[in-house]
Amino acid sequence: MAIPPFSTRRRDHLLKYVFCAYFLLCSSICWSSTFGEDRAAKDKRVTFSHLEHRQVDSIGPQVISIQDRQGFMWFGGERGLARYDGYRLRTYRSVVGDSSSLSSNMVFDLFVDSLGQLWVGTGNGVNRYNASTDSFTRYMYV
Q1: Which helix (H) or strand (E) holds 80?
Q2: Which of 114, 75, 81 has its CA nearest to residue 95?
Q3: Nearest 5 degrees, angle CA 74-CA 78-CA 67?
Q4: Whether 118 contacts 74, CB under 8 Å
Q5: Largest CA distance in the chain
Q6: Residue 121: strand pairing partners
Q7: Cβ distance 118 to 127 under 8 Å?
Q8: pLDDT 10s digits, 8-20
Q9: Which pLDDT does position 63 carry in this prediction?
Q10: b (16+ CB within 10 A) / e for 20-34
């Protein structure tokens, strides 16, 4: 059984149809990504209050800052550590006799590891922030 030959005219018509369909698909994708509305982005409103210098001054001259995975901004200074959540500034300091506080008020370095844990380098050692208890675990210099 012989296969009937495919006519040139029919092939040209099919190619035009495929080209037009491809062009319309690409155009609609480009148009929707450029001008389309993203309802999820529209419904999610982000607001925050501005952080004033006098608030950050409570931790002294700022040495370092970092943002963690939850979006908190952390600031380390000569007189402690501060966390800014977009609304309020919460300060953390070394408290004599409280082993769950910072080991020193002098904060030199901040680091967020691959697990999202905040590590604080101070004048007396390294401290790991425990978000569930809002406290620190001290790893003192020997």
Answers
A1: strand 80-84
A2: 81
A3: 10
A4: yes
A5: 97
A6: 109, 126
A7: no
A8: 676 666 666 666 5
A9: 77
A10: eeeeeeeeeeeeeee
**32-69 pLDDT tens trace:** 555 555 555 555 665 656 666 566 677 777 778 999 99
- Smallest CA-to-CA distance from 77 within 55, 52, 100 is with 55
Higher-scoring residue by pLDDT: 135, 29: 135
Nearest to 102 by CA among 73, 74, 135, 130: 135
* Phi, psi at 47, each rounded to 5°: -130, 150
Read off the tokens for 15: 């190619």
Sorted by sequence, the CB contacts under 8 Å of residue 42 that are 6+ apart come out as: none
What is the helix (H) or strand (E) element at residue 7, kind and residue range?
none
Taking the C-alpha atoms of residue 112 and residue 126, their distance in angstroms, rounded to an integer, is: 13
- Which residues lie below 8 Å from residue 107, measured CB to CB, with a gap of 6+? 59, 63, 64, 76, 77, 78, 80, 81, 120, 121, 122
Per the structure block, which two tokens stand in for 47? 């607001």
SS3 call for 79: coil
Contact 120, 126 (CB under 8 A): yes
